[in-house]
Known about the structure:
281 residues; 7 helices
Amino acid sequence: MDKYILFFIIIFNTNLWGQDIITLEYDNTGLDYKGPELKTKGYSNNQYKFKNISIPTLHVFLPSVSTRATTAIVICPGGGMRSNAFFHEGIDVAKALNNKGIAAFVLKYRLVPTHLIKKKEGLNEPYTKEKKQLTYGHLDALNAIAHIRKNKMKYNIDPDKIGIMGFSAGGAVSIEATYKSEEYNRPNFVAPIYPWMVIVEDQEPPSYGPPLFVVCTTADKLKLAIPSAELYIDWAEKGFISELHNYQNGDHGFGMKKTGYPVDNWFNNMVDWITAIGMLN
């Protein structure tokens, strides 16, 4: 009986954490980290989130074996650059993508060191620490894309169908990575979900014009609907493939949680869009 229990524990943990965890390249020069990574309670009793992440990792979730190379998506959970909502904006998304035949890679990008969170900025400009952290976090996203593309055979990935998506601050990470990408680490499409654009400087969309899918709600308490629409307009004015879903109801941070409103359809809308633009294998 003990062997059977152990077997199910192993299977459960494999499904929970994915098949592999990759440590990405990083350089923390200029960041004042103290203490280890912290795990705290998440949005429900059986979930948690992480803080004080100083070592970026990529958690691999692969769908059932396919004879053809699959689409891949890097997932950047949100948390204000101060925490990582690892479940409802990470693992839960990865599992849903796997069910659609898409390989998923949940990114734990570097965060503002915990001991600096309540420290006064010392400057008039708000979100100074978060903006500084974005200059590091977006590198983690670019390294994640580069790792997947380099290991396309290992993961059975189509190197021309690697996307990135992110929630709130993770949306900022995904957009900043897209702005700063080069040919070897650029995403083939990007899906910022209620992106926290206040920490992202105004920039032109990259010239190669990766398809863009944006989701937000008018009821978002952080008032992200207009910045999300402006991001869509930046792409649309260039004639790049772009789609905006700005729902009325649904508060900030819904992720994969059900709200009872039409915004609950956002994930299926996104997969339909990925299919429509020819990015789903």
